[in-house]
Amino acid sequence: MALFTDDSPAPADRGRRSRRERIGWTAVIVATVIAIVFGLLPSPYVIEQPGPVYDTLGVAENADGEEVPLIEIPDETTYPTEGELNLLTVSVVGRPGNTPNWLEVLWAWGDSTRTVMPMEAVFPPGVSNEDRDAQNEAAMVDSQQDAIAAALVELGYEFPREVTIVGLLEGSPADGVLEEGDVVVSLEGTPVNSIGELQTAVREHGTDAPASIEIERDGVRETVEVTPVDRDGTAVLGVGVRMHYEFPIEVELQLDNVGGPSAGMMFALGIVDELTPGAMTGGEIVAGTGTIDSAGAVGPIGGIRQKLWGADGADADWFLAPESNCDEVVGNVPDGMTVFAVSTLDQARTIVEDLGDGELTGTYPSCDAS
C-alpha cells in the first residue's frame, strides 16, 4: 500500500494562522483609518504659495469684471511699450477657523514652491480677518501713491512731498512736543521728503542728544527738539507718519483684490516706461518685487521664494529682488533665471533698460555677490 505525506498545516494551525492574519489586517485597517482621520484634522498652519502675476504694462480685470489698464496716465503723452514688467503676489491657503488639514500640510512640506507657516505668523492673534484685509488694502493704496511719487521724482518732476505726523505713542519722546498734522520738514538741517529719509536721519542721529526738527504746523514753520529713544536696537521718535503728495500729473493705478506694499517698485518702473520714449524692456519679460518710497529706495518684502516661482511660471528670465531679501533668494532661484539685487529705483531702471538694449555686461549686483 502506497504511503502519502500530507505537508499542509493541521486544522488547528490553520485556524491560528487565519486568526493572526485577520488580526493583522484589522490592525492595518484601523491604523489606516486613524491616519486618514488625523490627516483630515485641521492643522495650526497656513500655506504660502505663488499667487497671480500681473503685468504692470498690461491689463487686469477689475471688481466689475472689466479689463482695465493697470497704469493709466490720461492727460500726458505716453509711449508704446513691449515685453512685460511683472509684479508678483503670494496666495495664502487657510485662515483662522479654516486652516489646511495635516495631509495638505505634509504635501506642502514636500513642495519647494510652497512654504508652511504657523498661523500666528500670518494672522496675528487679536487681529480680525476684516482688520487684516483692511490693513493690506491700505498698504497697497499707500504703496501705489509712493510708486507714483518715486517714478515722477525719477523723471525729474518737482512737487510737494510731505511727511505728516498721523499718530503719537503715549509716553514717547515726541508726545507733547509734536502733534498730529505736523509736517516734518527737516531733521538736524537734513531735508526730509520721505518716510525712509526720516527714519535714516533719526537712526544716524542716535539717542544721545536731542534732535532739532523743523516742522510746519498750521502753515507756520517752527523748530522743536525731541530726543530719540532706543527700540529694539533702533533710534525712534515714537510717532506714526504718512506721506502726502500733490502730484503735478494724474496717474491712476488699478489693481483690485491685491493687498500689501510689495508692488511699489514694479508699478514705478511701469510708470517710467510709459512716460519715456522707447520700450524699456525691449520685449523681455522682467519680474520683480519690492517696496518703494518717494525717494526711490527699494525695501524688503515677504514671500520672495514663492514670488520667484511665480515669476518662473510666468516665463520670466530676469528677476529684480530687493537687496535686503538676498538671504532668502540664495539657493531658491529657479533654473534659467537671473536675479539682480537692487536697492534703488534708478538702479532697477538701469538694469531693465540695459536688458532691453541687450547690453548686459555682467557687472550688475546679484544676491550671490552680496
Could you outline the blueprint of secondary structure elements for this entry?
Layout: H1 11-39, E1 45-55, E2 59-61, E3 67-69, E4 71-72, E5 84-93, H2 102-109, E6 115-118, H3 119-122, H4 129-154, E7 161-168, E8 183-187, E9 190-191, H5 195-205, E10 211-217, E11 220-226, E12 229-231, E13 234-236, E14 239-245, E15 252-253, H6 264-275, E16 285-288, E17 291-292, E18 298-299, H7 304-313, E19 318-322, H8 326-329, E20 338-342, H9 345-357
Structure description:
This protein has 370 residues and is of the alpha+beta class. It is built from nine helices and 20 strands. The strands form six sheets. The chain has a six-stranded mixed sheet. Strands 7, 8, 9, 10, 11 and 14 form a six-stranded antiparallel sheet that branches. The model has no long low-confidence stretch (mean pLDDT 87).
Q: Biggest sheet: strands side by side, in what order?
A: 6-1-5-16-19-20
> How many E strands?
20
- Measured between the Cα atoms of the first and last residue, the distance is 94 Å
Q: Helix share of residues?
A: 25-40%
Inertia-based shape: globular
Describe the structure in brief.
This protein has 370 residues and is an alpha+beta fold.
